[in-house]
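Need residues for this backbone.
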């Protein structure tokens, strides 16, 4: 039943024109603009590719929550609650959906890096980079889902955009953290987006991601996952 639910939600998301344009096309456009206007160094093109792929995955993951909020307003969540699926199964199903729909954003930016900007990596690096970014996007899927269950459809859209832009900038997905003032650079190291991008950058540098990076992402995944489950249960009581 959970698998059927995931298939339904994935099809619905990928048929959404807005998701295709803003979730996939926008990160590619931003990447090409950032790397072909002004600074065109090859190192910057590689680093920016990782950052924009992470940013695209972030936006796609959060958009899962927007769909949740819309379903809640239409009464779809009430229908789900009469099925045998538990709250954890429903949240897990949405999380799996988010994990699937982030892939097109990641692949599109990586393809732009290879085909347009001439980024060159070994085959194993491309594969490892895609997988690392795919798995690393899970905390943001939980965050979006939590927002969707807790907030109205309109408010969820606004909050998710704020989370997308705020976490993207502070986490260093748009600009190198080396350009930040000291206090902001220190803060950035504890954000999930900064560590998310570090996963990819370690692979492009042929190094192993630091244990601290993995640990920070796991902590954020647990926090956001708990937020998603609590928000679902709260929506069940108030609907």
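Answer:
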């Amino acid at each position: 039943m959970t698998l059927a639910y995931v298939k339904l939600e994935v099809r619905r998301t990928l048929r959404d024109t807005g998701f295709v344009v803003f979730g996939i096309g926008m990160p590619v456009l931003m990447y090409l603009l950032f790397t072909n206007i002004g600074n065109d160094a090859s190192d910057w093109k590689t680093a920016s590719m990782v950052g924009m792929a992470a940013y695209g995955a972030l936006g796609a993951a959060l958009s899962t929550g927007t769909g949740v909020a819309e379903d809640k307003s239409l009464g779809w969540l009430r229908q789900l609650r009469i099925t045998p699926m538990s709250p954890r199964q429903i949240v897990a199903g949405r999380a799996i959906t988010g994990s699937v729909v982030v892939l097109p954003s990641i692949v599109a930016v990586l393809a732009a890096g290879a085909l347009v900007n001439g980024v060159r990596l070994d085959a194993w690096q491309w594969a490892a980079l895609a997988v690392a970014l795919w798995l690393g996007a899970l905390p943001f899927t939980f965050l979006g889902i939590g927002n969707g269950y807790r907030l109205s459809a309109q408010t969820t859209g606004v909050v998710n955009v704020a989370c997308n832009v705020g976490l993207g900038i502070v986490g260093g997905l748009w600009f190198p953290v080396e350009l930040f003032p000291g206090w902001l650079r220190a803060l950035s190291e504890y954000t999930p987006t900064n560590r998310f991008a570090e996963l990819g950058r370690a692979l492009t540098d042929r190094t192993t991601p630091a244990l601290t990076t993995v640990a920070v992402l796991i902590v954020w995944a647990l926090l956001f996952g708990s937020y998603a489950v609590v928000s679902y249960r709260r929506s069940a009581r108030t609907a």
